[in-house]
Every structure is written in C-alpha cells, then in structure tokens.
Write a structure and sequence with these properties.
By secondary structure, the protein is mainly α. It contains 14 helices and no strands.
Amino acid sequence: MLSKLVTALAPAVWGTTYFVTTEFLPPDRPLPAGLLRALPAGLLLVAITRQLPRGDWWWRSLVLGALNIGVFFPLLFLAAYRLPGGVAATVGAVQPLVVAGLAALLLGQRMTTRTALAAIAGIVGVALLVLRADARLDAVGVAAALGGAVAMAAGVVLSKRWTSPAPLLAVTGWQLVAGGIVLLPVTLVVEGPPPALTATNVGGYAYLGIIGGALAYALWFRGIRVLPATQVTFLGLLSPVVATLVGWLVLDQGLSASQVLGAAVVLGALVVAQRKPARREPAQEGESRADDRVPSLR
C-alpha cells in the first residue's frame, strides 16, 4: 500500500502542471516547459549519482526517455493545441487499457475482465470530469492524443521489462536527459530560442524541473519497479482529478455535479484496479519479484 501511495504522488504532482503553466510561465510556449522539465532535472540527477549507462543501457535509456518524455510531450502538446483540453484528456485516458494489453503481450501479465472494465470506467470518469458538450474533434489532434497515450504506455511496460541494476535516481536521470535531447531540436525548430524570463517564470520552471521532473519521475519509475505495470498506469488517472481540484480551489473554476460524479468514477476505477491479481506477474529480465524486494530510492 505504501508503494502505491508514494507512486500516486507523481501523477498528483503532474496534475498541477496546467496551473503552473498558465499562471507562472510565458504564454503559448508549451514545448520549452517540457524541455526544461526534463533536461536540467536529468543532468542534475546524473551529476548527483555520477553514473552513466553501461552496455545496452545506452540505447535502452534513449528508447525509454523518448517514449516516456521526448515523444510523449510533443504529442501531448500537439493534442492540446488541436483539441479542447477535455477531449485530449479523455483520449489520453485510454492509456491503462493500452498498458494492460502490452503487459499481457510483453510481460506475460494476464489481462483480466476486471482490469478491462476498470480501464473503460476510467475513460468514462475522465470524460465526465473534463469533457464538454460543445467539444469539437480534430483528426490530427485525436491521433496525437492517441499516439501520446500509446508512447507512454509502451514506456511504462518497457520500463518494467528492462530493469537496470543501477540506482533508481541514476536511471531516472538517464531517461530525463534522453527525453530532453529528443525534445531539444523539436523545441528549437517549432518555438525558437526561449524568451526573456521573469522571476515568476524562473520559479515556475524550477518547480516543473525539480518537483514535476526529478522528484515526480523518480517516484513514478520507482513505482514501475515494484508494482505491476497496470496498477501503476491506473494511478496516472489521478492527474485530471488533481487538475480539476486545483482549478476549483485556486482558480475559482466551477465544479458541476457531473464532474463530481466523474471524479468518483475515476477513483473507483483506480481502487478496483489496485486489487492484487490472482496470479503474480512473472519476474522480468534483470529484476526480482516486486513482493520480494524492499523498494528504495537508494
């Protein structure tokens, strides 16, 4: 239970990203926010741990960093530009269902009816929470939202399959750096060099980098190490719940009955998905069973 609560802190922190971005960062510059959340935080963790990848982990870190960050962020922001936020979030909520399918294929983890129904309930709950009746659809935006969900789902499952013996903070740093390297040329081409920053902007970027980047991703990857992949990805549904709650508490946004119902459905799906599976997930390459290890940030 403690591992789940600790892991849940990561998507809860990510749920504050919209508030920080809109209130503290320069307007209409989403890609620099992703870049500055990943690259400086990754370099900081690499400097602290003083460990570089070895052997296969050079290319594995690049693949994982690209899927979890470098590809996911641009697709996420493209979807946000092309779609109303509620549509993008609802499409992105298919991620637990994709993870369940990939986990069955790559990890030998049985996809149960309970997991499938919980995933569908999670999509319905997010739709009630953030979707609006007048929302418009855009084919490119929907494809980007689906692509982002699939990219991060693949990143979660491969992070579970490929477990490095290196300290967790080092592995987190490698992925953040790799994701930042992938993001750097995209950011420069699409949005150009960064604008002049105010003290408020610097504080916002520092929060995203240290709290939303280094700390949150370390907790997220820790959870992937010690929990089944499907349980981890369902925790990601907390992000839209927290974002809605922050909007209500801090930005004085309204909270309708359908949103309250949606939050309840999401939390119910999350609780159902956290129930221990009937059969333990087999150990993957380079890892022992999660139940046999004491999780540590080392």
